[in-house]
Predict the structure.
Amino acid sequence: MAEHVTSRKVYFLVFAALLILTGLTVAAAEVDLGAFNDVVALTIAVTKAMLVLLFFMHVRYSTRMTALTAAAGFLWLAILIGLTLADYASRGQIFPVPGK
Amino acid sequence: MASEPLMEPHGHAAHHRDLAHQFDSLDQQKESSTLGTWLFLVTEIMFFGGLFTAYVIYRRLYPQAFALASHTLNVPMGAINTAILIGSSLTMVLAIWAAQVSWRKGIVLFLGLTILLGSAFLGIKSVEYREKFETHHVPGPTFHFVPESEHVKVTDPQLERHASIFFSLYFIMTGLHALHMIIGIGILVVLAVLSWKGKYGPEYHNPLEMTGLYWHFVDIVWIFLFPLLYLLGAHAR
């Protein structure tokens, strides 16, 4: 079998990194950074998700087809959130919203 | 057991015990399972994605209510649960590793640990839910919400109504996540039994790998739920 066997060391390192990042996100939330609290929290969350995707879910060793499928899922999520936000953020800026 | 490929002719060319008729090789079979599982996970991303979008929009509309409501959640419990779930992801990959090195009892051991950690997560979650019922933070006729501190200057005239939107999203998102975990634990129990019977080894352990993908995906959902629901209200004002 051509299957990639990840060594346990990699798994334990990823596990440790995930725990450290969890501690970091809790600590960072205690500091008042204004709007940047959101940025920091989401950056840490995305980093953690990438670690899980690449190492625990073996996307790093998967075929391009699988990696592309996974990426497409997140791209569509970005479209869903991005375009919905674009709508809400720009309402009433070109034409007045009726009743407001 | 799985290390000895059973080649028995049965009406057509002989093939490996774990290879389904329609596939050319175990590699092709695994690739097919992986792609299929990922397509399912893409639908799951969009499924949870709708709720995340609702959260983003409502939080933008009612920032104060969301911050104050988020502030009432139990951060230590949420953080411990995050660690537990990450630990369960580790034991899940170790179960697959055990299969890759032909350690049958190891597979059962690590699947058992994954089930245990998953159950611990649900146990802590139920304690949190109980607390929400006791403080009337469950949306419905008995819902009641006032800011924890009197020093907060309430600028939202409909604070209670908007806080109930936060708690509705909290219960739907964490509830749906918990439902996924309950389903996952059910699958893991079946896999533990099959592993004990020696169904999985280095050549074939697709069900372990695919359940792992699902389990880690559920972990990723929580990785986003924890900061969004628990942490972003730390500086409510």
Notes: Residues 18 and 48 of chain A are 6 Å apart (CA to CA). The mean pLDDT of chain A is 92. The two ends of chain A are 65 Å apart (CA to CA). The helical segments of chain A are 8-30, 36-56, 64-90.
